[in-house]
Amino acid sequence: MLITAAAQGIGRASALACAAAGAQVIATDINAELLRDLQTQSANIQTELLDVRDAQAVAALAARTPAMDALFNCAGMVANGSLLDCTEADWDRSFDLNVKSMFHMTRAFLPAMLAHAKADGVSVSIINMASMASSIKGFPNRCAYGTTKAAVIGMTKSLAADFVNAGLRCNALCPGTVDTPSLRGRIASAADPVQAEKDFVARQPMGRLATVDDITPMVVYLASDESRFVTGQTLLVDGGVTI
Questions:
Q1: pTM reported for the whole predicted model
Q2: How far is CA 9 from CA 116, 152, 162, 228, in A?
Q3: How far, in Å, CA of 233 to CA of 243, rounded?
């Protein structure tokens, strides 16, 4: 199994959870120091420095990596603001990391995964990180982010439909607001960090932020044969936001 953005947050927790479940995990990220720390946590984890925006680097990694059972496209970013706040650079950066990187990763790794599925009679899985925010339910100041995550859901359904008869399952994971280093950075950069955290919590009906450990069981499930009859779905782990 390969996981992008695995050095911290949901990606790191997912790498550890999948490794604990017995998977051999290739954990990729652009942060070499955090990857080194992650590799010490489990004998089932090997790490690779990778910028998922670099198509040549992605292709090179795919060429030297054995066919996998699962790929978790976890890399992404959040650009704040409405359409009027969104610059062209914000828009392009959001699509480059949140959508185009998934195109590069999937295009590079999918052929070997499909060949593996056909030759060995197994089901292979791609998990794409989407979100409930502004792709499933509208939220203010998430124009670029929500648009990219809606695109991820569209890509997911397209892959699922195109390759359902070839042994591929493809699903989109849609978390609620998760307490990660990324979120903590956005809270810290707010004009009033205390109020910003309260606002994030207030939109969660369960009255708290999700932890990464609230999300990882779904990653393990989607990567495993336990989800062998699940494909083309947007799976919400949002604490009731979209009730």
A1: 0.96
A2: 30, 20, 31, 26
A3: 17
